[in-house]
Amino acid sequence: MLVMDRLSQLWRRLLFYARRDRFDRELEEEMRFHLEMKARENAEAGMGPLEASYAAKRQFGNQTLLREVSRDMWGVRSIETLFQDVRYGARLLLKNKSFTAVAVLSLALGIGANTAIFQLLDALLLRSLPIKAPRELAEVRLADMKGARGGFSRSPSVTNLIWERIRERQQAFSGVFAWGTSSVNLAPGGEERPARLLYVSGDFFNTLGVNAALGRLFTTTDDQRGCGAPGLIINHGFWQREYGGEANVIGRKLTLANHPFEIIGVTPAGFFGMEVGSSFDLALPICANGLVKGHNMFDSGLMWWLTVMGRLNPGWSLEQATAHLQAISPNLFEATLPANYPPDGVNDYLKSELGAIPAGSGVSGWRDYYEQPLWMLLAIAGSVLLVACVNLANLLLARANARELEIAVRQALGASRARLVRQLLVESLLLAAVGAALGAGLAQALSRLLVAFLSASAAPIFLDLAPNWRALGFAASLAVLTCLLFGLAPAIRATRMDPGAAMKAGGSGMTPGRASLHHRFSLRRALVVAQVALSLALVAGALLFSRSLGKLMTVDMGFRPEGVLITTVSFQSLNLPPDRHPAFKDELLDRLRAVPGVESAAIAYEIPLGGWGSSNVWMDGQEARLVRSTNLSRAGSDYFKTLKISMLAGREFDARDTPGAPNVAIVNQAFARVFLNGENPVGHRLWIEATHISPVTRYEIVGQVRDTKYGDLREEFAPIAYIAAAQASGVGPRGNFMIRSRLPQAETVAAVKRVLDGINPAITVSFQGFKPMIEATVLRERLMATLSGFFGLLALLLACVGIYGILSYSVASRIHEIGVRMALGAGRRDVLWLILREAFWLVIAGVVVGAPMAFAGARLASTILFGLTPADPFSLLFAALLMFVVAMIAGYLPARRATRVDPIVALRCW
Amino acid sequence: MGRETKKTELLPGTLEMLILKTLERNAEPMHGYGIARYIKQISNDVLQVEEGSLYPGLQRLAVKGWVKSEWGPSENNRRARYYKLTPAGRKQIKQEVADFERVLEAILRVVQPT
Prior knowledge:
The complex is a heterodimer. By secondary structure, chain A is an alpha+beta fold. In chain A, 54% of the residues lie in helices and 15% in strands. Chain B is of the alpha+beta class. Chain B is globular.
């Protein structure tokens, strides 16, 4: 409030300043009017005209003085001088074009980079959702997912049965809702056109306080068991993209999975659902799930796919809500336990407890993944800005030298020190303001670039990056902060001297004030050392991140993804009976294998690094039974050949392994190590626990393969059990065909499309290169390596400028000394070394200061490093070496200038 | 002119309070001359300020955003600047009066015999 008052006052003052001439005229007119009225009053009281006028003036007081005082009331004297300072500063900066350009450019880059990263952080982590009273929102989730068995489309999550019970029983919230995400294909056949689908409960929009931009949104009546094909709601972006924002979209039909859905409403712009970093295209009520998905998750107590949230009752705390949810938990889980629940999970399931956690900023998988890297990047970008500030401080100090005489004269003429400091600060502020304005603009482009970089995967990131007051405020505070950082010290220094001495020295044509000069020079040296130290730390960090990325990219995966195309085929719309699926898939596979250029092809339901499934596994007939959760992979014949995973013993899956034949499995080395002490596993039998799709089953191990990475490039090799795809249950009318081809991917894609279209045009398909898919899993590491590399280079460049500046100055001030030395017989090399020695010591000092900083920084980053210790000696050594080389190059130019000094000229100047 | 009225000096800051109060009591916007006349009349000529000092006072109130001014025709059809209270000014009056009363009370406690 107070701030607003101040600001509006400042605004009025500025307005006044702009119209000060009019003010003077008007005040005069007003006073004249007063005097005339008064004179008339006096005349009416019986005075003569002249006397009346005099009396009026007497009673009024000193007009000129009053006018002055009135004007001063606006406090414009300080504004006037401020404008003077700004004008003067701007003139000086325009005169010094190269200095201004360097300063503004480095500030714009620094502030722009910081603001861009801040915008991402803000959008991903800090901002609340664009909904009514987000702070009242809480997520209801299981305190522990230990007892959860079945299929998971997200985690943590609940089943629809649990959600329905929560809705019935809870009393902690004034409104509860649930939602789940899925995707649906919009294309009738051929290559898929996926749309992001949001399933919401009836109260979703109501409880969030979101209103339709067009038409209407769902209510509880839309989300009823057996709702058939209900209305469809589309997202604002989807409406713009697909329908050009036309108002007559309401009532139009959209076909999803062979069912026509009528569009009934459009959500408002800016609403992206509850998941920060993702958005949705279409929304359906939860009850429509069975219609769109092949299998029904609506009545399943084993499909975990919904997130439950609620708006707390007025006056309720999260603790109260959690206590209430805990109290209703035992009953709730008992009532929702499905009959076919895997037996070993039943106990934990019944003991599960619900709790409430804050959800005002939504949920996000991206958040956990990118939080640390983003903060780290902000710290790195902040350091670069700091280096830029140090650079500017140095340049300003050098300029202060040049302006010593000017400042001395002004001081001698009576300018107060505060006024001079202010004037110098105004110059810095001008630089900072221009830099920040450019930087804020740059940030818009940079943050979009960053998101585009991160969206290079199958799951694009959606973030609202519209410029907002927080980003602008951030940029503005950076401007003020940097201005103080680089401007204050030089300003104070410049004005702290004896004007007499400075003028005397200046008058005699000599460099002024030896003692003060030395002092200032050592401050400049300290600044350069700080620059070198910071740059060293940044470069070392960049090397660490790129080496880490390199190690990750070259890590032994156990298979060869190059040249493999993942072709995901769905023939749901053919409505084949399930017992025909295996034969149909075999036919597809045969046709794909016949495509020209294809070396081999295989079906798989779990792709390495692209999906997961695990169950408890134990060996048949072992005395001390080891039960262990083991990664599972359902793979068809030629799978290992196609991925080039070497067979160590036994055989691949082949045509023998049909649904009727004995169940077979293939395991990897880690499996044999963990379960069989490294024995040859072929011939042993393993058991896999009962799941929601299959009973407890025994498999005979028929082969052993090399270890491969399963879920993540960073993990150690873990046990994997492969099951013959033809014998697997619950796979449905779809599958991933891994195709290894000699031909370029585009050709294979075109050929596969032709083949599938020939079989049946209603088959839908999507393609993904195996190698790019894996590369997308190291996006975070790539981001860190790329950006820290960029910032490292920038810092290095700035440090270069700093070293160059200080050495140039050093050469200029030692010109007489150099002249004398040369006259006494010093050679070119001696002079070169004289100057370069200084650069050498600056770097030594910088490395000594910077090395601990680099270590400390690397320790903070240790969790996102792969295959390296934070104290990686190579990175630091290489960074130091680089620093030396660069410093020598930066120092060589001034040093060469020193060798060209003509001793005669240098001595005569003395 | 038989009766001699003593001219009273104003306490600092009082003038602005008087202006605000004057504008509050008169619903219509007033020009400077009108304000001066009103203060004089109401106070039975006791408060006889140097009339011109009204204008710096008005400017100060304008800076603070408590009054706004507009040009309009006067009663004798001349151009005159009319002042009126802003909502912020209306709020401020209470504060100003309270401050003034506090000062006045303090003075009275000193002056009056106990």
